[in-house]
Write a structure and sequence with these properties.
By secondary structure, the chain is mostly helical. The protein is built from 5 helices and 3 strands. A hairpin with a 2-residue loop joins strand 2 and strand 3.
Amino acid sequence: MLNLEAEAAASQDRVFSALADPTRRRLLITLAESSPKTATQLAHDFPISRQGILKHLDLLAEAGLVQSYQQGREKRYSLAPEPLNDVSAWIDALSARWDERLLRLKAFVESENEPDAE
């Protein structure tokens, strides 16, 4: 069980690392809006070379955020949203914990401000 948790954490780390770069986030948005696309097609929309795009796509693929397939001589890339769902679930769980903590704080502050009944 510990190995599965470690693998899940490592997967989330790769996704967060991939999402940390603004160019990679823009690539994901572009692929979400219109895919599949080749690296050459993507390079037209970015101020970096095709080789730079390929490096970003490789990192996104390692994180599981991009899938590719060969079509003739061209490799086409598309968004793979499943890892984003896992990260979203993690963020939702963290948010729920924070909300619970805020509710406890609110209840404490309100109980401290109640006048003592004599």
